[in-house]
Specification:
19% helix, 247 residues, alpha+beta, wza like fold, single chain, Outer membrane lipoprotein wza fold like, 5-stranded mixed beta sheet
């Protein structure tokens, strides 16, 4: 029991130490306490200028500082303004928003996710969102500080607070007509018309494998339709139409 108690105490101490060294950022909410000065107790959110507004002293910039450093900055402002001789200030983080990322696109649960670890990985956040959907691409775009980074989900990629992750739609082929399940299906490498139809559950008893049409947009943006055979390769956004058999 003593070992467990010691372990819990160490964990609590480590969590407290981490909270005191974590850098504050825009969007974070803090609770400011000034010892024996209840009128100065403040709950505030860090604005886009990286500041909070305190009674008497106005705006104080605390973004980029730890809670201990932020408390020191507030105490200095109170002392330099001659409001208090020896102010004792504490700052506690109540809501962390600067350490969040936005996850958009083809995942099970798009939304905002907090980064809890010191080195959060892209794959971990996607897993927390329920994973990539059947039509999602494995190549992902991460928008950071106005720049786009194209990332493979299977390779390590450390995220930062404020990142916007977009899981784009994977290339697809469309299958319609006399097939078991009409719809869009992921395009795999060297996919043939036969494989695309198989993805849709195959041709129904009313359909004919000899009456297949393929619609494709050419380089000029014009939609072209032609007869197609089962062994021909398909491209992204091709539309395959299986017609009824002629009896």
């Amino acid at each position: 029991m003593k070992r467990i108690a010691v372990g819990l105490c160490f964990f609590a101490f480590s969590a407290l130490a981490l909270a005191q060294t974590e850098k504050l950022g825009v969007g974070d909410a803090v609770h400011v306490t000034v010892y024996q000065q209840t009128d100065l107790t403040t709950d505030a959110r860090i604005n886009e200028r990286g500041s909070i507004t305190m009674p008497l002293i106005g705006e104080v910039k605390i973004a980029g500082k730890s809670p201990v450093e932020a408390a020191g900055a507030i105490a200095d402002s109170l002392k330099n303004g001659q409001f208090l001789k020896n102010p004792q200030v504490t700052v506690a983080i109540t809501t962390v928003r600067s350490r969040q990322v936005s996850l958009l696109g083809h995942v099970a649960r798009p939304g905002r996710y907090a980064l809890d670890d010191s080195s959060p990985q892209l794959a971990d956040v996607i897993a927390a969102a329920g994973g990539i959907t059947a039509l999602g691409a494995e190549k992902i775009t991460v928008l950071r500080d106005g720049k786009e980074h194209h990332v493979d989900v299977f390779k390590p990629f450390a995220l930062k607070g404020g990142d916007t992750i977009n899981v784009e739609r994977a290339p697809v082929v469309y299958v319609y007509g006399e097939v078991t399940r009409s719809g869009a299906y992921p395009l795999v490498q060297d996919m043939t018309v036969m494989q695309a139809i198989a993805a849709g559950g195959g041709i129904t008893p009313r359909g004919s494998e000899r009456r297949l049409k393929l619609r494709r947009t050419d380089a000029g943006g014009k939609l072209v339709e032609k007869d197609v055979k089962l062994n021909e390769r398909v491209k992204a956004d091709d539309v395959i139409f299986v017609k009824e058999a002629l009896f």
